[in-house]
Amino acid sequence: MDALSRSVVPLSRLDPGDVAGAGGKGANLAALRRAGFPVPEGFVIRTEAYADAAERAHLAEIVERIAASSGGAGVAELARSARERLVAVGLPDDLRAAIRDAYASLGDRVPVAVRSSATAEDLPFASFAGQQDTFLGVSGVDAVLDAVRRCWASLWNDRAVAYRASNGIDERAVQLAVVVQRMVDAAMAGVLFTADPLTGRRRRAAIEAVPGLGDALVSGGANPDRYLVDVERGIVLDRHGPGAARLDDERLRELAEIGARVEARFGEPQDIEWAIDRLNLLWLVQSRAITTLYPLPPNAPPSSDDVRVYFSANVAQGVYDPLTPMGLQSFQLLGSSVATRAGLPPRDPIAGPSIIAIAGQRLFIDLTALVRSREARPVLNAVLTNMEALSQAIVARLADDPRLSPRPTRRGPVLKALVEALLRTRLPFLVAGALLRPRAAADRVDQRMREVMALADTVPGAQAAELLDAYERSLLRGMGQLMPNAMSLAAAAMLAYGAAGRLLGPDATLDERRSLLRALPTSPTSQMNLSLWALAQQAKADPASASALRDRTAPALAEAHHGGRLPITLQRGLDEFLARYGHRGVAEIDLGVPRWSEDPTHILLVLQNYVRPGDLEAAPDVQFSRLAGEADAMVEELARRASRRGRVRGAATRFLLRRVRELAGYRETPKFYAVLLISRARALLLRAGGELAATGRVDRPADLFFLTLPEARAAVAGTDQRELVRRRRTEYERERRRRHVPRVLLSDGTEPRAEPAGTSGGLAGTPASAGTVSGVARVVRSPDGARLEPGQILVAPSTDPGWTPLFLTAGGLVMEMGGMMSHGAVVAREYGIPAVVGVDGATDRIASGSRITVDGSAGVVTLDVPLAAPD
């Protein structure tokens, strides 16, 4: 009995939370059985037995070598050796006796299923379906013991090893339990997905069924009948297949209903294996999370009729990685600040406005009210057309969904709220001031930013509680104060651009008007990149600096910079650059991401790229000056054309176009200052984290980024948050491996898509920067460590300011995301490189080394014959 209680445990007595001892499959079956679901009797041989067998088989060195290997034939040979040793291992007498007794309790030589249950199995992010082995119809204790050893050995199947590697699971941490269950004498079996795995739609059960055992279905050896059931209404929506299973509507509703109860038990959609025996009784033999579904916001409505539309702010900003919890918290505070300034204070400022939704640790905006409004929908379409064209096409198709059909808006309350917001923010007056006196307006923005930054000031020696107060104060009050002033400059530019376009009418082509947006003198991003280029030229002219950039790695150079040990020209130049732009970084919208001032490795990689030998038609600073001159000349030319229809029209056109040149660059200013505010807030949290780490509430200062503000305050009050941080870091790394993030997500789980864009000659997108260029494509999914040869065409998912140093040497740009006014499009126009944005699937459909032609006026990318150059 002692051996039985230690290593072999009946399912009826197993703790459902004991994943470490029972593995994912065993723990889930125990949870189902405890909740009263029909689960066949059985027992679990816990992971301690596997650990003992692995020790007896001397696997430690083999496992270490597999964990340290990068794959290939060597790993396959090591895995084969591990399997052979486990199959041959002897079992201790007490374990054999425990298994014999547990098996005898099921009946005399009863057929059983012997199934592997790894600790890295049936997890929320990795199902491991079919990776380890299952043995069915095993009869007799000797056969059971042999099957147990073979289950242990299957932990080292080639497919299981590869699957763990692809999911970032440490081989040394994985253990295996074995589940032994009475076989169901199945007349019929199958799988039940409590959400449609193809569309992601929740509350829609997808069922597959075959006669007999379900192993033929899982192995692909049988063609199943397939059914789709609306769980809420109990309606069978679809059925097709050979009809061999013959499930009637009543049985399908029963399966859908029990699936809904299982989903409620586990709190997320489930993939359930089921069987119906010869007595027509239904049994559940496995349940695991559907790992391919994108998570929904926690407050998503449960009914599919009350559908919400979520737009991914992450994807729109070119940040596909998740945000840290404190990074998300920061946006909730920033959103509350802006909403309060507009006269719409949220109920809970810490949680943020109701339009902010968090799913998959990423930021989404709830657009439902705008989509459902007949009056607001055209405005939303216009904004998305300019900012994110593919999302606009997706949202436009939602008009076909009757649940989102446009409804009339009560104009009175909306107009009243709009007027009040404009008056509270003084935006119309600020825009008028920017049009009349651009320089004075820009100076006011700088002054307001200094006032906002002062909100983060603390007394010397401030304690963690005070630092958290300053963090909250600076974001909750600062953004609302800053945004109207910062936005007024760009708004004035857009107003001037639109008014000039109306005055010009047919006297100017679209490309001519867009050329006015090149080489804008007030763009902080352009000035940053030109400063970086100038630093590269200084370093290139200094032998010691040039040698350091050529001969040393970027991480080594970053370490030397922190110690003040770089050649003096490079050290001083980098210090000056970081003093101005060190608050920026790749994925800079996440407060939890290091700034360039903390880790300048990325900037040094860019400098190394800039000083490499290569032919440029013109240095970026020279080209920028040329484009600025051409734009200024275009102002005069267009004013001359307008004056042919009247001197006043010509003068007004000249005034407006000059204001466009003066003000359009400020489009980047709101984000520039917002990131500066976020950077200051980050510094406060690092100081607070240092105190909490010293007192043992967290392990290291940066752990604070994996807590929310209330959780950080709890740590200050004495709560040990180390375990919570470890769990959050694990969840964050898991989300980083997610391969797809939806642009638009509905609350029923579906991801609406636009019709695939294409032309007979290539890929269609949105024209973003005029001109045509042919060259070699370079697909870059992350700017970290990326290098672009002069003239290569950058193909990227999206971009933020961390990407833009690559633009200086790019011959053209192709982007999956974006519209005319998206960040990448704006910067491409400023640099005069042809660009097409909103090209769906560009990074997959274009290969590095392919020769492509980018027509930035027509919005078409043409693929020529691929070259042999590797990625």
Furnish the topology, listing elements before pairings.
Blueprint: H1 2-7, E1 8-10, H2 19-34, E2 42-45, H3 47-56, H4 60-68, H5 73-88, H6 93-104, E3 112-118, E4 134-138, H7 141-154, H8 158-166, E5 176-182, E6 186-195, E7 202-211, H9 215-219, E8 225-230, E9 235-240, H10 249-266, E10 270-277, E11 282-289, E12 309-312, H11 313-316, H12 325-341, E13 356-359, E14 362-366, H13 368-372, H14 376-387, H15 389-397, H16 411-425, H17 427-436, H18 438-454, H19 464-504, H20 510-515, H21 524-541, H22 543-551, H23 554-562, H24 568-581, H25 601-610, H26 620-643, H27 647-663, H28 669-694, H29 709-716, H30 722-736, E15 744-746, E16 763-764, E17 766-769, E18 772-779, E19 793-796, E20 812-815, H31 823-831, E21 835-837, H32 842-845, E22 850-855, E23 860-866
Parallel strand pairs: 18-19, 19-20, 20-21
Antiparallel strand pairs: 1-2, 2-5, 3-4, 3-5, 6-7, 6-10, 7-8, 8-9, 10-11, 12-14, 12-15, 13-14, 16-23, 17-21, 18-22, 22-23
Describe the model:
With 871 residues, the chain is an alpha+beta fold. Among the domains are: 1-182, ATP-grasp fold, A domain (Dna Ligase, domain 1, 2-Layer Sandwich), CATH 3.30.1490.20; 184-293, D-amino Acid Aminotransferase, Chain A, domain 1 (2-Layer Sandwich); 309-423, no CATH class; 763-866, Phosphohistidine domain (Glucose Oxidase, domain 1, 3-Layer(bba) Sandwich), CATH 3.50.30. The protein is built from 32 helices and 23 strands. The strands form four sheets. It has an eight-stranded mixed beta sheet. Strands 9-8-7-6-10-11 form a six-stranded antiparallel beta sheet. It has a five-stranded antiparallel beta sheet with strand order 1-2-5-3-4. Strand 10 (270-277) and strand 11 (282-289) form a beta hairpin. The protein is globular and about 105 Å long. The model is unreliable at 1-5, 122-128 and 866-871 (pLDDT under 50).
